[in-house]
Specification:
about 500 residues, alpha/beta, 14 helices, binds zinc ion
C-alpha cells in the first residue's frame, strides 16, 4: 500500500498590503520527496501523519509529495498560486499510483483571482486520483471551509485547540481516519454547515477555564468518542480575508450515518451561532494598558498586540505599544518585537555596543502604522533561528533571518529581518532574554500566546491598537464578503441547514 502525504500551509490576511510569493515559501522551508518524510517525521501535522502511518497493521510505503509552508502574510500573487498547484500536482503525478492521500492544509489561503486556494487544490487532487482513492486533509481551526473543499475531500479534520497545541495530534487523527477507510471499510459521510458569523480570536481559547470555545471543544471530543464518528470540528474563520465565502463552519464526518452527521453538525453550528457574542473581547487602549503594566511592579505583564499579530498575517512592524513603553522607566526588561530588515542591516553594520539612532516601524504597513524615532544602543546581533514547540508548532523549525536587539534603558526591541512567531519565548530566549523574568512582553498574537504565558503572567491585557489584524475587523472596508454576515449585520432568525457530502458512488 502506498500513501501520499503533502502540505500547503499559509494563513492569508488580505489587509496586509505585502504579497506572498514563492520566495516566502522557500525561506520557510520547502522540502520534497524522501527529504520530507525523513525531515518532518516529528514536525506538526506531517509528523502526525508519518508516525501514525508507521503504526498501521501493515505499514504503508509513504510517498512524500512536497511541503509548502509560508508564514502568515498578505495575499499570494496569482503566479504563486500557479507555482503551488504545479508543485503539488507535479509531485502527485510522480507519486501515482497511490492508495490514499493525506494533505496538511491551513484552509484560509487566498491568492489573487483564487479566493479558495485549498478548495482548488483539493479539487485538482480529486480529479487526478479519481473518486475511489480516499483523500483526507487536516485544516487549521481558522480555516475558511468552502463547498469546494467539502466536495473534494472524503474527510476534513480540523484542529480542536486554540492555542494550536494539537497540530501533531490532528495529523495522527487524520491518518487514523484514512486507516479506517482503507482497513475497516469505513465510508465517510461528511455534513457541513456554513455559519454566517465571524468572531475575534481573543476569547477563543479552548484551554481557558470556561467559555464557548471550551464548551465546543468538549462537545467535539465527546462526539469523536462515538464509534460511528470519524471526525468533527468547528472552525471560527480567521476574519481578515475580504473574500466571497468568508464565514465560520461546523463539520462532522461519520461512517455511513448521514442522519447523525447532519444532526451533530447542526447542533454544533447552532451552539456557535447562539453564543457568538461571547467571543467579543474587552480591549484596553494602548496608553491605559502600558500605564497598568507599569503600575504592576511584580511579575510579568503580557500586552497582546492582536492588530499586529504576525500569527494573523499582519506584518509585525507596528510600534504603537513601543512608543508608549518608551515613556516609562521599567524595573526589568520590557520586550517588544519589530520586523525591520533595513534596521537590522544598519544595526549589524554599526555592531554590538554602538549607539544607534534610527527610524523604526511603519514601513511594511504604512496604512495603520507610522514610524517613530528610536535612540539607543545595539545590544547584540544574532540569527533568529530556533525550534519552536507550543502554539502553532511541534518541533517546528523557525528562521527569521539576521536580527538585533536595540536597547534604551530597559526597553529592549528585538528587531528581525522577517516575520515569524513574534510572541514565542524561544525568540526572546534566542535573543538572550528570559521572557518570564521581564516586566513586560508584547506578544504579537491575539490568543495563541496564552499557551505559554497565561499561567506565568501577573496580568494580560488585550490592547486596542491600529493594525492589519484588528479585533474590530468589521470596522474595516470589506467589499467582497457575503452579506448578511455577523457582526457586520444583525440577523437573528438564522438556523443551520447542514449539507451532506456523499461519496460519488453512493446513490442514496
Ligand atoms: Zn489558526
Amino acid at each position: 500500500m502506498r500513501i501520499a502525504i503533502g502540505q500547503l500551509w499559509q494563513e492569508t490576511n488580505t489587509l496586509n498590503p505585502r504579497p506572498t510569493t514563492p520566495a516566502d515559501f522557500g525561506q520557510f522551508g520547502v522540502v520534497r520527496g524522501d527529504e520530507l518524510v525523513a525531515g518532518m517525521e516529528n514536525v506538526n501535522e506531517l509528523g502526525g501523519f508519518i508516525q501514525s502511518l508507521r503504526q498501521w497493521p501493515v505499514p504503508p510505503e509513504i510517498a512524500g509529495l512536497v511541503r509548502l509552508p509560508a508564514w502568515p502574510g498578505g495575499m499570494a500573487t496569482s503566479q504563486t498560486f500557479t507555482w503551488i498547484r504545479d508543485e503539488l500536482l507535479g509531485a502527485l503525478d510522480a507519486a501515482m499510483p497511490v492508495d490514499g492521500v493525506l494533505l496538511a492544509l491551513h484552509g484560509a489561503m487566498v491568492a489573487d483571482l483564487h479566493p479558495d486556494v485549498e478548495g482548488e487544490i483539493l479539487d485538482a487532487f480529486r480529479t487526478r486520483i479519481g473518486p475511489q482513492v480516499p483523500l483526507v486533509a487536516t485544516i487549521d481551526l481558522h480555516a475558511n471551509v468552502t463547498g469546494q473543499m467539502v466536495r473534494s475531500a472524503d474527510a476534513l479534520v480540523p484542529y480542536h485547540c486554540l492555542p494550536h497545541i494539537d497540530i501533531f495530534e490532528t495529523g495522527a487523527r487524520a491518518a487514523d481516519v484514512l486507516r479506517r477507510i482503507l482497513f475497516d471499510g469505513a465510508q465517510p459521510c461528511m455534513a457541513f454547515a456554513k455559519i454566517p458569523a465571524v468572531v475575534p480570536a481573543e476569547r477563543s481559547s479552548t484551554e481557558a477555564d470556561a467559555g464557548i470555545a471550551v464548551d465546543i471543544k468538549r462537545r467535539l471530543l465527546r462526539l469523536e468518542n462515538e464509534p460511528r464518528m470519524l471526525a468533527a470540528g468547528v472552525t471560527p474563520v480567521q476574519p481578515w480575508m475580504d473574500i466571497p465565502e468568508l464565514g465560520s463552519s461546523a463539520l462532522v464526518t461519520t461512517d455511513r450515518d448521514p442522519a447523525f452527521a447532519r444532526q451533530a453538525c447542526g447542533e454544533l453550528a447552532e451552539m456557535f451561532w447562539k453564543r457568538r457574542r461571547e467571543y467579543l473581547p474587552e480591549l484596553v487602549d494602548v496608553a491605559e494598558a502600558v500605564r497598568a503594566a507599569h503600575a504592576t511592579r511584580e511579575g510579568l505583564v503580557v500586552l497582546s498586540d492582536a492588530a499586529d499579530a504576525t500569527t494573523s498575517g499582519a506584518p509585525g512592524d507596528s510600534v504603537w505599544i513601543l512608543e508608549e513603553l518608551l515613556k516609562y522607566e521599567w524595573p526589568r526588561e520590557a520586550l517588544v518585537t519589530v520586523v525591520a530588515p533595513d534596521v537590522v542591516a544598519a544595526a549589524s553594520q554599526a555592531g554590538a555596543g554602538a549607539p544607534l539612532a534610527t527610524s523604526l516601524g511603519g514601513v511594511l504597513d504604512d496604512r495603520f502604522g507610522r514610524p517613530i524615532e528610536f535612540q539607543g544602543v545595539v545590544e547584540s546581533c544574532f540569527e533568529a533561528r530556533f525550534t519552536m514547540t507550543g502554539h502553532i508548532g511541534k518541533n517546528l523549525p523557525i528562521d527569521m533571518g539576521p536580527a538585533v536587539v536595540l536597547r534604551r534603558q530597559n526597553v529592549c526591541v528585538v528587531v528581525t529581518s522577517r516575520s515569524g512567531p513574534h510572541f514565542a519565548p524561544e525568540l526572546f530566549q534566542t535573543a538572550g532574554f528570559d521572557p518570564f523574568a521581564a516586566s513586560v512582553v508584547v506578544a504579537k498574537s491575539p490568543c495563541g500566546f496564552r499557551a505559554v504565558y497565561e499561567s506565568r503572567a501577573s496580568a494580560v491585557y488585550c490592547v486596542r491598537a491600529p493594525g492589519c489584524a484588528p479585533s474590530d475587523f468589521w470596522t474595516q472596508p470589506f467589499a467582497n464578503i457575503p452579506r448578511p454576515l455577523w457582526p457586520w449585520d444583525e440577523l437573528e432568525s438564522w438556523r443551520p441547514q447542514p449539507i451532506l457530502r456523499r461519496r460519488e458512488d453512493e446513490t442514496s
